[in-house]
Amino acid sequence: MRVKVSRGVCVFVSGDGEEGWGVADLSAASIMAGFGELYSNNISGPIPGDLGNLTSLVSLDLYLNSFTGPIPESLGKLSKLRFLRLNNNSLTGRIPMPLTNISSLQVLDLSNNRLSGVVPDNGSFSMFTPISFANNLDLCGPVTGHPCPVVDDVYAIPASLHSFALWWG
């Protein structure tokens, strides 16, 4: 099942191309009210980057689904967002830095995914606790309690940066 966003309304598209509403019944009225509640609907595939265009959202609940891939950087445009719950999916990659710019963000739950890299500790992220990031085995940083590895070997640096590292080394 995929989610398509058009004019602020989410439409579920099944594998056979049929469109319809899911169990969450996310209507235009709920979008205008600022609530994107699609939790526990067994939705799979990537989180649509177009959700970042729904700038009136105050709550985005996509937890308990089967979302995969990275968290879209476009979610950082949701300046009114107070609640972001993406927990219990299969999201991968790094936490997008634009999310730290959402000053209204009060609740963040990215737990139980497959996220990796350093957890930002600036901006709105400075107030979140380890529970927000729990069970992402490849996350590191002060808030996780897992120190990030120290890179002291040029071969541990990604190949795309080898010439840069060697030039400075």
TrEMBL record:
Query: Where does the source fall among the domains of life?
Result: Eukaryota
Q: Gene3D superfamilies under this entry? A: Ribonuclease Inhibitor
Which Pfam families does the UniProt record give?
LRR_1 (PF00560), LRR_4 (PF12799)
| PROSITE patterns per the UniProt record, alphabetical | LRR (PS51450)
Coiled-coil residues? none
Instruction: Tell me which UniProt keywords the record has, alphabetically.
Output: Leucine-rich repeat, Repeat, Signal
- What name goes with this protein? Leucine-rich repeat-containing N-terminal plant-type domain-containing protein
